[in-house]
Description:
Layout: E1 7-15, E2 18-27, E3 30-35, E4 41-44, H1 49-52, H2 58-67, E5 74-78, E6 92-101, H3 105-112, H4 115-126, E7 130-134, H5 138-148, E8 153-154, E9 157-158, H6 166-173, E10 180-187, E11 190-199, E12 204-211, H7 220-235, E13 239-244, H8 248-256, E14 260-270, H9 273-281, H10 293-318
Parallel strand pairs: 4-5, 12-13
Antiparallel strand pairs: 1-2, 2-3, 3-4, 5-14, 6-13, 6-14, 7-10, 8-9, 10-11, 11-12
Amino acid sequence: MASANHVIYKETVRIRDVTVQCHAVRADNQTFVVSGKFAKTAGLRTDKEQWFEDVRHPDKVIEVLKAAPVKVDLFRFWQRIPDVTPRYPYYKEWRQIAAIPISGYKHWFEKQISPKARNKVRKAQKLGVIVNEITLDDEFVRGVMGIYNQSPVRRGKPFWHYGKDFATVKNQLSADLADSIFVAAHYKQELIGFIKVRITDRYAMTSLILDKISHRDKAPMNAMIAKVVEICAQRQIPYFTYTVWRRGEHGQFQESNGFEKVSVPEYFVPLSLKGKLALRLGLHNGLRGWIPEKLMVWLLTARVSWYLVRSRKIKRMIK
């Protein structure tokens, strides 16, 4: 095991299923990846550890980061649900998490979701959508490829899964199988939606969730959410999280299906003059942190329209 002050000069992390090499520092037996352009920020890996681990002793981590040969300007960490009461004296902001508190499937279905979502779950059942927890096999991988390859644009931006070959899709779906389950929706033997769920010590969380656009009239998303809630209730998992709270229609979908906006404290600790400056100027959240919410929603809508027009032009050129 590495010592508390061991510096890992290159750590492989996944960003949108693409592996990249980043500098990282080992502190208090945890790995903190260093990222950022203007201000170098250290934090637990966003592709796994940030959702699976607590920063146990931030004061010890700060000491190591300050002494590390890799330049670090800011230290960023947050408390995981249901630990929402601030524990530390550092500067904090509130991260909005989408989570369903689960006491039982019946309670969720009757009390926590909207009438519209409840009707969609029933509709999926009436139309013959079959939703089950399944194992990862070649048939499932081929079905996922069919979902991936519907369009090069999804939710208003280039879809990074589009056009991947069988081996790549299977390899990426196979990541973290030890703590993952798959829930799939089928209609007449066709895979029309799936969710990859990661199981942590405190909650279940979505890792991937997609459906077939041509079958959305059958409400596979609502049916799959219902199945995951049922599984969590059976396994006595107290929360199901859709990770962060989303904007626009995506946020409306979360709220309709019983997800609640849960605020957890996120801490930013400046370790250098540049870190203090970044925090004072609001650069610790990147340029997005400067954009007002209403303007951000408008920009995201405009991006959707731009990519749709662009994709249609590309299709006409191919033809």
